[in-house]
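Why do we bother with a discrete structure alphabet at all? Because it lets us treat a fold like text: something you can write down, compare, and reason about line by line. To make this less abstract, here is a complete entry for Beta-xylosidase. Read it the way you would read a sentence in a foreign language you are learning: slowly, and without expecting to understand everything at once.
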Amino acid sequence: MGSTLRRSARRRWASLLGATALAVTAGGALACPAAAGSNVDFATHCIPPAIAGLPPIDGTTTANITVDDTSPEVGDTVAVTYTVVTAAAANPTDLALPADIMTPTGKVTLGGAQSGSITVAGPKKNPPVPGRGTFPSFSMTGTFTVTSPGAITLSPGDYNIHTSYILELDTPCTVIAPPAPVSQTVTATSGVPTNTRAISLSSASGDPGDSVTVSGSDFTPGASVTLAGRSGAAQTADTATVTANAQGSFSGSLVVNDPATTGIVAYEGSAWNADLGAGPAAYVVNDTTPVPDGSQRLTTTVKAGTLAMSQAGDSVALSAVDFGEGGASTGALRTVTVKDFRGGPAGWSLTGKVTDFTGPGGRIDAGKLSWTPACATETGSPSTCAAGSAGTVGASGATLAQAPDGTLTGGEFTVDAGLSLDVPAFTPPGAYSGVLTLTLT
């Protein structure tokens, strides 16, 4: 009698554990989040835990890969989401499975301009699954750093589901004929080289005719470098020439005679170029003119400030749309004020990118949000801002406004934009929200 009871209990445990293991290989009834990547099918070999007493399962997995940036630069970090839309099996038993027992992990295979794999993992979260029922899709996330320019392909790879129900078990699922089809492609660029040239002065002030030592680093090795005084946006007659050594460094003297000089620069080439130069480093020419009897000399200093922005608010309510019709959900960006009080030659750029809009019925893809930017320049500002192009914002981002480099830049600017979210016609009713992040550089 005892052995009969043990065999019966063992069969029940094996049946229950087997169903749990298969839950991790299931895909499902729930729709995959909207994404730029395409759904791909690939043959999958899944092995339930030995205690389940079930044979391997060969079937077809449908998966999708999304990224937060399809046009990264070398050195950027790209977030990747691997979603199993439909897996190789469903719950084969009459036993219902509880919620939140499955923790998926997996790999995404890189190809093209960059090779390797990305480790992805998902949360321990799933809805209850009825007996004989299909299983919901599940997603796993991870990141990779772009190391090479060009087209980088992403293909779904092996995945494993760890179940925490009665026992801690794993069900590995492997791609039968790797690599699986490409689901997503990102095109990486080498990016704009950063100008790291820098200078320092032996003194921040001097009398007319005094010599100041200018030291520089990160210039082109062996390049001829011009040292020059600056008076606001103009160059003074005070110049000298030095040659950078094999390490791109130099140290040279500049005699400053012009009392109008307010700074000193160093640059390669025949004329000042912010991309091939450094500075201005502040320098003051002392006024040594004798003060007449009964007079007093008055002096003041203008200090450089910072580049900063502020917003008129942090939330925007877009207009509602009707289920079954969808269309444009519109609104206006909270006004952004940019203050560039640096007083140097550099311009600025204000960009934005948005997340997917999430709600009770799933997601609305970030690529559905577009804007029409506008930018106004306050009177008296040395720079003039330009609005970015109207079009899609998306997860990859777009330019909202910018001001160019110049000999003297700065000012105050107000930036606005009309917003429009293209909501699909049969998006389930409810409130959806996304986060628009603005970055000023």
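What the structure line is telling us, in plain words: The radius of gyration is 32 Å. The longest strand covers residues 150-165.
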